[in-house]
C-alpha cells in the first residue's frame, strides 16, 4: 500500500509504484470512482468499446439467458 498526500492546492502525486502498476505516464487521463468514503483510481481506456466488450460474460449460468429469451416470446 502506498500513501499520497493532498497538497494545499488539492493536488496529489501518484506514487511511482502505482504509476508503474497501472502503466500510466504524464499526460494520461485517470478515472476516479467514489464508493461511499473511498475511491478507486484507474487509467481511462483508450478505446471504451474495447474496454466494455464482454464485460458481462460469465455473470449468468450456461443456458440462463436463452431460457429467459424464450420466455419473452411465449
What does this entry look like structurally?
The chain has 74 residues and is of the alpha+beta class. It has one domain (16-72). Helices cover 28% and strands 16% of the residues. The chain contains three helices and two strands; from the N terminus they run H-E-E-H-H. The protein has helices spanning 16-22, 48-52, 64-72, and strands at residues 30-35, 38-43. A two-stranded antiparallel sheet has the order 1-2. The chain starts with 15 loop residues before the first helix and ends with a helix. The mean pLDDT is 91.
Can you give me a brief rundown of this structure?
The protein is an alpha+beta fold and 74 residues long.
**Largest sheet composition:** 2 strands, antiparallel
Helix and strand run: HEEHH
- State the total count of DSSP E strands: 2
Beta-strand content estimate = 15-25%
What is the helix tally? 3
The portion of residues assigned to helices is 25-40%
Stretches where pLDDT falls below 50 for ≥5 residues?
none
**Overall average pLDDT:** 91
- Terminal-residue CA separation: 54 Å
Radius of gyration: 20 Å
Q: What is the strand arrangement across the widest sheet?
A: 1-2
Number of separate structural domains? 1
Structural class determined from secondary elements: alpha+beta
Amino acid at each position: 500500500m502506498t500513501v499520497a498526500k493532498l497538497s494545499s492546492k488539492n493536488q496529489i502525486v501518484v506514487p511511482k509504484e502505482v504509476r508503474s502498476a497501472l502503466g500510466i505516464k504524464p499526460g494520461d487521463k485517470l478515472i476516479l470512482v467514489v464508493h461511499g468514503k473511498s475511491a478507486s483510481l484507474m487509467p481511462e481506456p483508450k478505446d471504451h468499446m474495447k474496454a466494455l466488450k464482454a464485460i458481462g460474460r460469465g455473470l449468468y449460468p450456461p443456458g440462463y439467458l436463452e431460457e429467459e429469451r424464450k420466455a419473452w416470446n411465449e
